[in-house]
Write a structure and sequence with these properties.
The structure holds 2 protein chains of 2 kinds. Chain A has helices at about 1-30, 35, 45-55, 60-75, 85-120, 125-140, 145-155, 180-215, 220-225, 230-270, 275-280, 285-315, 315-320, and strands at about 170, 175. By secondary structure, chain A is mostly helical. Chain A has a two-stranded antiparallel sheet with strand order 1-2. Chain B has helices spanning about 5-15, 20-30, 30-45, 50, 95-130, 130-145, 150-165, 165-200, 205-210, 215-225, 230-255, 265-270, 280-305, and strands at about 75, 80. Chain B is elongated and about 80 Å long. Classes of the chains: A mainly alpha, B mainly alpha. Chains A and B meet through helix 1, helix 6, helix 7, helix 10 and helix 11 of A and helix 6, helix 7, helix 11 and helix 13 of B.
Chain lengths: ~325, ~325
Amino acid sequence: MLKFFAIRIVQGAIVMLVVALVSFTLFRYLGDPVNSMVSEDATIEDRELIRESLGLNDPVIIQYFRFIGNVVKGELGLSFRTRSSVANLLAQRLPATLELSLVSALFALIFGIPMGVYTALKPRALLSKFTLVGSLIGISIPTFLSGLLFIYVFAVILGWLPSQGRGGLVDLGLWKTSLLTFEGWSYIIMPAITLGLFQLTLIMRMVRAEMLEVMRTDFIKFARARGLSNRMIEYRHALKNSLVPVVTVIGLQLGSVVAFAIITESVFNWPGLGQMFIQAISFVDIPVMSAYLMFVGAFFVALNLTVDILYFLIDPRLREQ
Amino acid sequence: MSESQQQAQEMSLIARAFDSDLWHSFKESKVTMLAGIITAFLLITSFAAPLLAPYTPFDPGSISLWAADLPPMSVDEDGNTYLMGTDNQGRDILSVIMYGMRTSLIVGAGAIIFAAILGSAIGLISAYFGGWLDSLLMRIADVQLSFPAILVALLINGVAKATLSPNVLDGAMMYILIFSLGMAAWVPFARSVRAAAMVENQKEYVLAARIMGVPVRSILLRHLLPNVLNPILVIATVNLAISIITEATLSFLGVGMPQTEPSLGTLIRVGANFLMSGEWWITLFPGITLVILVLSVNLLGDWLRDAMNPRLK
C-alpha cells in the first residue's frame, strides 16, 4: 500500500513537471511580453534593457529550471500588466474562487447524492420522473446560459439578488470572506447555484446509474434471499458498492468546478481566479497565465491523489491486495 | 488508419443496426423518437438555412438599422415580419439562429470526429502494444485530464490568437475551434477504447490472428476496431452534446466564432449586452435553440448508451 502511494506521488510529481513544461513553453513563446510593457515610443535599447531584466535572453533550459525553482519557492514573478507580484494576485483572488467552488460543490453533493439514490430505488415514483427530466434539461443548459437566465429573472425582473461582484466582505486578515454576512450570501447564492447545477445533475445521474447496476447483481439477490431488510440492502450493500466509481467521478468533477468557475465568474463579474485568467489571456499577461495553469495542474494532481486514497478507505478489497 | 475501411465497417454496423434490437428499442421509446425527430428537424433547418431562412442576415445590403431592436412579431416600415425580432444591427433573429446553428453543428461534429479518430487510434495502439508505450500514452492522457476541456481549448485558442494575424484569424477560427475542441475531447475515447481492446486482446481470435502472422495494422483495424465500436459510438453521441456546449461557451467568452460568422454562443454573447435593458429576445431565442439542440442530442446519447448495454436488457 505504501509502495502504491509512493508510485502515485512520483507520478504526480512527473505530471506536475510536464504541466510546468507545457505552461512554460507555451507562454515563453506566446506573444512578446516586452511589447505590452513599454510605451509606443520606447527605443530598442529600452526594450533590450527590459528583456534583460526579465531574463528573456537566457538559454531556454535555464529559463525552465529557473521557472520551476521560482514556482517551488512561491515566487511567481511580476504581472507584465500591473507590475505587481503574481503570488499576491493569486492570494487575493483565491478566496473568491474557493468560496464559490466550495458552496457550489456542497450544493451539488447535498442534493445530488440523495436524488440519485431516490430515483434509482423508486424509478416509478412521480417525483423520480420529474427529477430525471429536470436533470436532463439541467445537463443540457450551458453554465453561462443558466447564469444569464438567473440574472434576468432574479436581478432584472424581480430585483431580488445582486448580479455583479461579491459585495461587502468580512476581512479575516489573509482571507476576505463573503460567507459571514447576509449580504455576502445574497451575492454568492446565484453564482454558486449556477456553477453547481451542472455538477448536481451529473452526480445525480452517476449515483443513479451505479445504484441501478449494483441492484441487479447477484449479491443483492442473495442478500434478499437471506431475508435482509430493504433498508439494510439499499444502504449497506447497494449504496456502499456503488460509491466506489462515483467517488472518482465526483472527485474529478469537483476539480472541473474550478475550470467551470471561469465561465461563472465571467457571467457574474466574480473577482476570482477564472476572471483573472480570462483577463490575463486578453492582455497576454504571461506570468499570470502560467501561474494559473500551474495552480490548476497542482489542484488536479492533488485531487487525483485524494481520490486514490479514498478508494482504499471505501473498498476493503484493495487493501488486502 | 485507412478511412475507407473504417467507413465500410461503420456502414455495415449501421445497416445491421436497422435490423436489430437497437432499432426496435428506438421505436419503443417515444421520447427517443421525439428527440430523433427534433434533431433531424434542426439538422435540416440549419443546413438548408440558405434556402429556408426568411432573410439573408450576413448580406450588408439587406440589413437596415431602421429595423434594429425590434421585439418578436414586429413588422417594419417595408412590411417585413420578424417572427423572433431583430438584433441591434437589424438582423432577423430567426435567420441568424438558423445560420448560427449550422456553424455550431459543424464545429461540434467536426471536433468529435477528430477526437474519435485520434482517441481510438491512441487507445488501440496503447492496448495492443502495452508496456512503456501504453504507460506513456496513458500518462499523457492523465496530464491532459489535469486540464479540463474548456482550459485546453482556451489555451490552444490563445496560442492561435497570439500567433496568427487578426485578418487570418477570423477565417481560420472554425478550424482552430475544431482542433482545440477535438484535442480537449480525445481522452474518453482513448480510455474506453483501450479498456475494451484490452479485453478483446486476450481473446483467442486475436491470438490466432497474431500466430497466423496477420500484420499489426490489420489486427488493429479489422479485428480489434470493429469489436470496440460500441463504446466509440456511445461516447461520440454523449460528447457531441458536450462539444457543442463547449464551443458555445468559448464563443460566449469571446474567444470563439467571430461576429461575422456567429455560432449560437456568439449570438448569446451579443445578446447578453442587451439583457440588462430588457431586450430579452436577442439572448433568449438562440439560448432556447441551443438548449433544445443539446437536449435532443443528449437524449439520443442516453438511449444509445442504455440500448447498447447488454446488462440492462
